[in-house]
Records
---
Amino acid sequence: MSTLRLASRLPFETRRKLFLLTLGAPALVYVLAIGVGPVAQGVWYSLFDYSLIHPARRHFVGLGNYAALFADASFRNALLNTIVFSGAAVALEFATGLGLALLLWRDSRFNQICLALLLVPVTVTPIAVGLIFKGLLEPDFGMIGYWLAHWGWSDPRGLLGATHTSLATLVLIDIWEWTPLMALILLAGLKALPVDVLEAATADGSTLLQRFWMVILPLLLPAIFLALVLRTMDAFRVFDSIYVTTGGGPAGATDTLMMLAVKRGLQFFDIGAASAIGNTMILCLALIASLFVLLIRRADRLANGR
Amino acid sequence: MLATIVTLFLLPVAWLIATAYKPAAAMFTSPPTFLFVPTLDNFRKIGTLYDLPSLVRSSLTISIGSALLSLLIGAPCGYALARSRSRWALAIAYLFLGIRTVPAVATLLPFYLLMRDVGLLGTTAAVILIDTVLNCAFVTWMMFSYVRALPPELNEAALTDGCTLWGAFWRVDLPCVRSGLVAGALFSILFSWNDFLYASFLTRLDSKPLAVALVTAYGTYDISWGTLGALAHVALIPIVLMVVALNRFFIGGLVRGVH
């Protein structure tokens, strides 16, 4: 009670600050301890030659793990696969997502139902998405895979079993799974466009295509960059769908950074190397994020202020 | 046009659901057939192959536990950050946004070793703890953007009327951002229910959730898709129905939560 009475004697602004601090502190402490803590520890581990199989042989190697990674062909392959996968998936998802968002733009009962149903691919467990397509594309009994192999449109081992088609097939699976999310974010951007500007453009007598290029697209740029950055960062970390379909194979054709880090760390218990891969990914993601933040700021200035 | 596209997005899931009613013999015909006599064999089979109550219990414990913990600590924090006049507030809000972009492997390894040392490895508690980092960061950011859109005059008027700071927060501001709370809970439940990577390495046989069991449904016990389809009824349908039914909150949260 005495602390309460003391608190009530403090000036209002101080009490307000203390109150907000009390509300905010638990989450901040939690995230620092259980979120940021392990990241910092991962940075520390990456400086050691540290394997759980021989924990006693742990010793400091400085940046040795990173040097070893970039000299390692399988890491360079995984990095390349990750970049190709994210680039291709996000570009195609953007093209189809924008088309879908334009189709859904008009507010009608039918469009609202379509919108709700489009949430299905986004909410289905990602691991199940991989399994669904593995089943459909299976070359011997799969609904799609059988016919593709039968007509000679795919390798006899199936689309996922051949080195030259497996990564592209995973891109297609990703497109199925995440195009609706891209469309949703772009649609939200479309709905937030200023109505008077759109009406003025229509009154000008410009064609639909002109309006799209000259009015809608420039105003939509902030939403576009936002959708792109979110999807790029997620695609860069893709794991579930690859893990259950190809596991990184055949012959490393679909190995991504995430797959490689999980294999090194949680299957071979090479903590040092796996941490180094994880940290390289954090650096790449930070780079992607800051690039897009710069683009979003510029687009915002172009769209809203002179 | 739109109807065709939506059908394309639904067909693969419909296929998985349909395989559950397909007899094993119809699964391995070449060429594959669309026609079959429906059977409930696959549902009987998953009843004997899996400890379904345990799987459902783990999935529910993890998703609801993490959602509650995230709301409990994340919602007040998002509110505090939105109302604070400190210049640190925005930086901290961005920290919460940034933590969500860290790839799971980077935190999973040190966290795995930490859980091993404190003896929580193999429990649903370990998964709740790590899931809550991401979920709480999401809820915080979401509350931050919802509260910032709320006029502060509401809170000031309540204080002038003699409300305590707590009362103005709990009885005036919080009810105004109810849809944000629902969206935060929805995203937390969805993430934890669907998460595979954390759960597969942090749980054991008796504590694994449905998402981890799905992977073993194909190939471990038998090589038919029927068991997977049957298990998908339990693992996918509840979560998909929940999100589709609450799509208004989901889409609203998505739009606010990512900005």
Note: The longest helix of chain B spans residues 52-83.
---
Amino acid sequence: MEIIGERINGMFTDIKQAIIDGNPEPVAAWAVKQTQLGAAWLDINIGAAATDPSKAFKFLIEAAQGAVDTPLALDSTNYDLIEEGLALCKHPALINSCHADRHKIERVFPMAIKYNASIIGLAMSEESGIPKSSDVRVGLAMELVAAADEFGLPMENLYIDPLILPVNVAQDHFIEALETLRQVKLMADPSPKTTCGLSNVSQRCANRNLINRTALVLLMGAGLDSAIANPADTDLMDAAATARVLLNKEIYCDSYADLFKSARHTIH
Amino acid sequence: MPYLTEKSSGSISTVVLGATKENGGTRGYTLTIGGQNSLPFQNYEGVDPHRAVIAAEILDIEPVSWPDELKKAWGGVLGDPAAWAKKAVEGGADMVYIKLLSADPDNGGRSANDCAETVRAVLEAVPCPVAVQGCGVDEIDKGVISKVAEAFAGENLLLGLAGQENYATVTAACMVHKHTLISSSPLDINICKQINILISEMNMPMNRVVIDPSIGGLGYGLEYSYSVMERGRIGSLQGDKMLAMPVIGFIGSEAWKAKEAQAHESDFPKWGSEAERGVLWETITATSLLQAGIDILVMRHPDAINIVKAQIEALSQPVTAA
């Protein structure tokens, strides 16, 4: 289970302020903290407010890379911005994200190959929006899997996101996401990886952490390999570590939970 | 039709045994083990860059209880560790593994200083990397291993055994005096991993750790030890860093325990000549575990050593995908 640390995002006020002030310290601190807690990737998102997106993105990338060797997930809908970011990354990055539309695939897959990056592929298109049924999601995921084959992206560098919606507004979607994961893992050998924006599931709900970790365990049982989540949520991380052991993905030892919550990348 | 191969996300750490003069030791050569990112001998799927090595087991006391065939094979050197080590290396062993059994009160209880002198004599007699373990009594071994580590600082000995009770002492001695250590667990992959975590938390570099998962000889738990070793190796190749170290196994001592390896033909006429049987018992134990990923085979009979060495050579030839 690769946790993609979600905390370096301009939607959080401390990161927003850091972008405005040009102060790398809060960014570096979150890069270090999330890495220490076991994050496999660090999501980088400038949020909505940046007046100069290109400058803000560069600032966040450099602040994070100055603190840790953890690879970055470049989170933007602006592909030119992502391409500028890829050129700055010291370690192969993760592009967050690409819809299953042909024109987006043609823009994103070649740049992923050029920079040896991975891609989060969303099981949706502009036309479909977020489909209700798993069948449609699986069909769109297949477009992305076929594109990986076509463009020469190694299958393990493709992370399919089955799409998670808040349980209080779209309660019937979650089981569709579970079924999508099961089908995606059967699409190729080696299979594509899978990921999701976990905390979406609990937007505007009570008991957010409880919902998040219960969802994570269910998703892992259906084939989830990674999640954009908060590694500082200790209960979430413990649940993920335990699910890994129970799913026989990790050999048990008494310290298995602590091991999962320890750094896997170098901190400078 | 493309040839389908398995790709691994993890790899085994690369461990160097021994140190030459340039690196603070006195060895004539070093040995490198580990570094694989594929299952054993599947070099068409990944790299298997370093061959398994054979360490001849040397005791610092005369092995009176050893089967006659083993004693005969070594002739007059038993009881003289330096001469024994020299003969073993000249006979084909890649390195030697000394067990300081004389430190045990039941075997005379020699002092840590005296034990270190034995190690010195062996180091002077052979150019190869040397492994040293104590007598198996934790309290005594703490002193013996600490003394040996200090006396031969920089030599990059392979020191053991670091188990659940004494790992801290052995690890500290190896870290301070620049040796490699053997992390030992009782045929239990969970404990194996746990000890490695504890050792790693002491900041021991994991490229200076070799795992002893314990083995059983042919007919006495070989299948179970094979499964444990294989499970650890597969887990490592899937990215489990706390198991991703080269593996050592005590082939000779386990194989020769078997009644089938020792019994005389006169008592069991249908079993055939004990001269061949014991050697084959040790050989089969060794070659089976080669397939599970063993990197250092600690062996007893010189003929078995040479048969297994030839096997390793043959199995290591490049394989081309069909």
Note: The longest strand of chain A covers residues 94-98.
